[in-house]
Amino acid sequence: GTLGPAMATMLRRPSSQSEAVTPATEPVSGPLWHSGKLGNGISLNADLSTISRRAKSGWGTQLAETWYGNMAPEDHATIVLQITGIGENAFVGAVGHNFYPGSWDMPLKESHHFSGIELATGEAFEKALPCMQKLSPMGKDTRLRITFDVPQRELVIEQLREFSEEARYSVNLRLTSNRVCLAVCFGPGNSEAVLQSVDGSKTRVIKGNKHITDLWDPENVIAPPELGGKLTPEEEARKKVRENEFHVAALL
Known about the structure:
Blueprint: H1 5-21, E1 42-44, E2 50-55, E3 60-63, E4 68-69, E5 76-85, E6 90-96, E7 114-118, E8 123-126, E9 129-134, E10 142-149, E11 154-160, E12 167-174, E13 179-186, E14 189-201, H2 233-251
Antiparallel strand pairs: 1-2, 2-14, 3-13, 4-13, 5-10, 5-14, 6-7, 6-13, 7-8, 8-9, 10-11, 11-12
């Protein structure tokens, strides 16, 4: 037989509810470029994953959305960037937070806040100075894997092989600040770059610079031996080290 109006309404209700809660446009997610400030001639696509520049002259820099640092939610990141179009030249790397309020219309190799590479030559720069390290010249469809390790002030840029995650060449540079962000700078011509992936994390172990322990550090505490017992060779050695440090400290 035929379904009554009430039964037909009940069968249609899940579909109706699903349509009611579906947003008209999907929320933006994934790796993003910063949209609050744009470099000279820089354009963003709708989902903020792609930047482009089409200009006959000048330079324009664009930053990614996320900053990494000791006081930030994340201080380590691995980013995969694809250069889907390149004009005369481009720069890719990291800038410190003091770069943000300044001009974004100069080649990044002239900035003291930049560490990174020049695509046309493969040369590397730190604080406006050329480095000994170098990649091969790069063009359209180049894929780069960029790793920030802020606690160690380390920036690694890897030039990936075509259709592979294997690194062909890499450079190891120093970050210019304890708060950094990915930066891409395009020169004259038609250029485009896509953020393919961003994997950020927070270092759980604080990496200090203490290499010599003090007398009061836990590892130097010697438990009292049992009555009538003897110290083990390891305990005896640690006791002598502690006594020597005590005598040295008394002479200072």
